[in-house]
Batch of 4 targets.
Target 1
Amino acid sequence: MSQEVLLKIYGHIWPAGPDLHEALLTACADALPAEELSVTLDGDLCRLSFEGVYFPLQECLAVLQEGIRPEHQGKLDVLDLEAWQLTRHQFVAGRIETSSAPLNNVLAYSGH
C-alpha cells in the first residue's frame, strides 16, 4: 500500500555549483519516500522536486540560508496538501523571502 502524498515541493536556484548541489542532496537525504526526491544540477541551475509524506524543509532552508549569495535567484515552493496551503521561499538579493497563501487563492489566480 502506498502512502498518500501530503507534500509537493518544487524549486530551483541559480547560479549554483557542485558544492551547493551536494549540500542540498545531503540536507534532503531524509525525505520520504526517497525515490520521489530529485535534486539535479544542469549547468549552473539546481532543480529540486519532491512528492511524498515528509521533507526535511528546515534542513534544506538552512543550507540555502548559509549558501545563498546576492547573485542567486530562484524559489522553493512547498504545497502542503493536508493544510491546503502554498508557501513560497524566494531567493532575492542574498536572502530568503517567505510568503504563504491558501491553495484556493493560488488556483483562482492561475485561472483553474
Target 2
Amino acid sequence: MLHYSVVFLVVALIAAVFGFGGIAAGAVEIAKILFFIFAIMAIVSFVAGLMRQKN
C-alpha cells in the first residue's frame, strides 16, 4: 500500500509540473489517504507483534 501512495505522489508531482491542477490535487489526496491507512496498519501490526511476544 505504501507503494501505491508513492506512485500517486509521483503522478501528482508530474501533473503539477505540467500544470494539470485538478489531476495533481486528486492524486495528492489519494496519496495522503493511502499513506495514513498504511501508517495505521503498520502501527497496529507492530503493537500486535509486541503483544504476541509477551504471551
Target 3
Amino acid sequence: MVMSMSEAPELATADEATEQRGKAVRLTDWMTAEELSRFTARSNWRAGRHVAFNWLMIGLIFAFVATWTNPLTILLAIALLGGRQLAFAALMHDCGHRVCFANPVANTIVGQWLCAYPILSDMERYARGHRAHHRLAGTRKDPDLPNYMNYPITRESFKRKIWRDLTGQTGWKALKATWRRGKTELTKMPWDGNAIAGHVIVNGAMFGVLYATGNGWLYLLWPIAFMTTYMLIARLRQVAEHGVVPDLYDLDARKNTRTTLVRWYERPFLAPFNLNYHLEHHLHAGIPCYRLKDFHHFLKARGFYDDTHFTEGYGELFRQAVPASA
C-alpha cells in the first residue's frame, strides 16, 4: 500500500487490481454485481470527513502539548503524530486510486495538497509505483518485495531496523530520495511547479498557523515525527500487510496479503481509516477505505474466508515475524 519507494510508468486507476486479481480470485463467484456496487460507492461527505478529522486530530495534539508541555507529552505527541502521518498516507493512497472522493477533482487536489504534501510525498508519483505493486503482488516481480520478503527475521536484525528508524537514519534516506525526485519530476497539477514547492508551501502554512498562535516551536514535532516514529510505523505496517503470509508467491490474495484484526489502542498508530483491511483492498482496489470493514464482514459471512486465518492484533503478528528462536 502506502509509502512504497517503487515507481512504475503508469498512473493508478480504481479497478486496476481487480483485472489481474481475477485470474486467481473471482469475486463474482461469491457476490453479484449489485452487491459489489454497494461497496464501491464513493462518498464526498465521508471522504471529506476523514480528511477533516485527521487535520483536527493533529491540531488537538499540538494544543495538548502547548497546554501541558513536558518531556512525556512531547514524546507522546511525536508517537501520535507519526500515526497521523500514516493516516495522511492512507488517504493519499485512496485518492491515488481515485476512490476516496466521488468527485475526481477532489481526489486530485485534496489527495495531493492536504494528504501527500504534508508528509513530503507526491500522490501522482506514488500512484504510479503503487499500481505496479497491485499488478505484480503474488509474484517475484512485485517492486515492494524488499520491504517484507525476508521475514521472519531475528530479533537482533529487527532491533537494528528499529534503531535506524527511531534515530532518523531511515528518515534521512527518505528525505534525500524526496529531494532528488523533486528536482527532476514535475507534478501533474494545474500549476507549473514541482513537488518540493508543494512540500514547502503546505509545511510552511502549518508552521505559520502555529507561529500565529505563539507556538511556532511546536512545528518541530512534525518533522521529528516524520523522521522517527512515522518511519517505524511505516515499516511495521508493510510487514503486517505482506510479511510472513501463507504464500508470498501465490496469486490468491488470501495467501499473499494479510488483514489484521486490531485492538482499539493499536488503531491510532498502525491502522487509521481501516488500513488494516489490506486483504480486502487487494481483492478489489475500487473499494474506498470507509467501506473495507463492511466488505470484510460480507465476505466472511459468505464463507469466502473459511480457510483464511486473521491475525488478532499486532502482538501476535510480530511474534510470527520476529520469533524468539529465529
Target 4
Amino acid sequence: MDYINAFWVGGLICALAQILLDKTKLMPGRIMVILVCTGAVLSAFRVYDGFADFAGAGATVPLIGFGHLLYQGVRDAVDESGLLGLFMGGLTASATGISAALIFGYLASLIFRPKMKD
C-alpha cells in the first residue's frame, strides 16, 4: 500500500504542476518556486510531516519535499545556533542532495556530450 500511496500522491503533485504549466502563463521556474514555498509553508504549519508519513516518497521526492527539507534544516539550525541558523540551516540540510545532483549532472555531461541548442 505504501507504493500505491507514493505513486498517486506524487502523480497528483506532478499533475497539478502540469496543469499550472498548461493553463496559466507562469514560467516553469516560477512553478518550481511555488512548489518549494508550498512545502516550506506546509511544514511551518506542521501539516507536512503527516502528509509525508502517509505518502512517503510521493511527498518527499517532488520539489514540494525540497521546501519541507529546507524548512526543517532552518528550524533545527535556528534552535541550535540562533539567528545564524537562518543562513546555514537550509544549506546544511540539503547539501547531500544538491551535491549528488551536481556530481551526477557533471558525470552525465561527460558521458553524453551535451550541445548548445541552435
